[in-house]
Amino acid sequence: MDAKTVNRLLFTAAALLGATLPAHSYADGADVSCEAEDSRRNCTLELDEISPADLSVEVMSLDLYRLSKTRSNAKGEFTFIAPKQKYFLLIDAGPGHVFDVGPEHFAAN
């Protein structure tokens, strides 16, 4: 199995294990809020018990392709360009702490 396939399987597992995000917050101590500025999304991440600094944030298509990748800054802020297709975010906060932010979170933006 090549690395790309392994990554897709890991992302699929993370997405299936995560709960779906209602409009603004995520269960288990994570909160993501985003403001739309044209196609740019300016977001802030807050986590209970984990620092939101320097976390990997991946923009994923619904068929599990990584569209882009960014990192949060020291304040938990990150920015990305919203793709035209439906997407979700995978936020890796370390072992056992992967959060998905579902596409319905961005439906209004």
Structural class: mainly beta
Fraction in beta strands: 35-45%
- Number of DSSP E strands: 8
Computed Rg:
13 Å
Order of helices and strands: HEEEEEEEE
- Oligomer state of the chains in this structure: single chain
User: Tell me, what's the shape?
Assistant: globular
Helix content: 10-25%
Low-confidence stretches: 16-27
Note down, in words, how this protein is organized.
With 109 residues, this protein is mainly beta. It is 14% helix and 41% strand. The protein is built from 1 helix and 8 strands. The protein has one helix at 3-17, and strands spanning 25-26, 30-37, 40-47, 56-61, 66-71, 77-81, 87-92, 98-101. The strands form 2 sheets. It has a 4-stranded antiparallel beta sheet with strand order 1-2-3-6, with no helix packed on it. Strands 5-4-7-8 form a 4-stranded antiparallel beta sheet, covered by helices on one side. A hairpin with a 3-residue loop joins strand 1 and strand 2 (30-37). The protein is globular and about 35 Å long. Residues 16-27 have low confidence and may be disordered.
Keywords summarizing the entry:
109 residues, four-stranded antiparallel sheet, globular, 14% helix, mainly beta, 1 helix
Summed up:
With 109 residues, the protein is mainly beta. The protein contains 1 helix and 8 strands; from the N terminus they run αββββββββ.
Secondary structure blueprint with pairings:
Blueprint: H1 3-17, E1 25-26, E2 30-37, E3 40-47, E4 56-61, E5 66-71, E6 77-81, E7 87-92, E8 98-101
Antiparallel strand pairs: 1-2, 2-3, 3-6, 4-5, 4-7, 7-8
